[in-house]
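User: We ran a pulldown and think these components assemble together. Before we commit to crystallization trials, I'd like a predicted model of the whole complex to look at. Sequences follow.
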Amino acid sequence: EDAAEESNVSAELIAQRKRLVDEWNAWRIRAKEELAADRSRSGKKPAPKEKPKEEEAKE
Amino acid sequence: MRPILLQGHERSLTQIKFNREGDLLFSCSKDHVINVWFTHNGERLGTYDGHNGTVWTLDVDTQTRFLVSGSADNTLRLWDIQSGKCLYKWEFPTAVKRVAFSEDDDQVVCVTEQRMGYQGAIRVFNINREGDGRDQSPEPVSFFNPTGSKAVVCAFAHIPSLILTGHESGKVALFDAKTGEEVNSNQRAHMDLITDIQLSPDRSYFITSSKDKTARIHDTRTLMVIKTFTTETPLNSAALAPKKPYVLLGGGQDAMSVTTTSLRQGKFETRFWHKIFEEEVGRVKGHFGPVNTIAVSPNGDCYASGGEDGFVRVHHFDESYFRAKPYGDLEIED
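Assistant: Here's a predicted model for the assembly, 393 residues in total across the polymer chains.
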């Protein structure tokens, strides 16, 4: 079903979507780097802690 | 997608929020009550009684230990989630319209309403997590009055020394949490009242909804608009779906459909939009009045909507939702 739908999408639209995703990904990578820099300047860990719960509970 | 109807509130919902694990959903309402529900079956686990007015807002810490709530009774309250007891109460001259925990759970920021000779204010409180939680300082660590258009929603930004705000005029801004100085703003983020603000897990971007019928994704550092989702109805809430490139929008009904649909038919919808292509991908009907608040579980397996109709609807995504790649195999960064 999905495959059938995809084949109807024009090459132009596919190119357009590829461009939008590339732009988004480029922005995300840049934003993550800038975020890491800001956070290290403010004394924070580079990324939000994934599973801090158990560790903090033990302390 | 099978919906679970959460029945228990007697008036319209104002805000809903999942805990970090997504197994519990907290809801507050104009009926003065806060409820907590099991997400998997919709059973009510408990209530938090005490507010004497509309509860406008709530937030849950990352450990599911403390809950904060803000109300039209001019109080901000800290609750023990497990026992349901109110641990502390801060009183203000006006209503509390929005509260949010910091990433580390050690601070809370709130916005109070501008009214009768009182300016709208932002306050930050330290939360003492030692002991039973009853030993809190009555004084904020920071207090300031944003000038210009009043702030209506707020949160801690990508670094906890900055407060992110959304304003009545449609402005978004960043304030220094200590000095109250406005360090950045985007005056034209929206053209009308901002109704909701929700951040990405790493807080590097956020989504806003507005009465101007659009929702927008912004870069938190620069406040630049990255994406715009243009609908036909004033929006009350916008949420980011983790792990899928979707945003969920909720609000009123299309002006066009108002004359043809009845309030009794449950036609008010949550709209799914593709986050990157800015295209609508689907709608989920169900509410009998405008959708006031939407939340997506942090693990991305379900979402909930709270309506003007007094109902909360929880939707667990089908397996097909996770398999679906409606736009092919493009890899999208979180």
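The two ends of chain A are 53 Å apart (CA to CA). That may be worth checking against your pulldown data before setting up trials.

User: Thanks, that helps.
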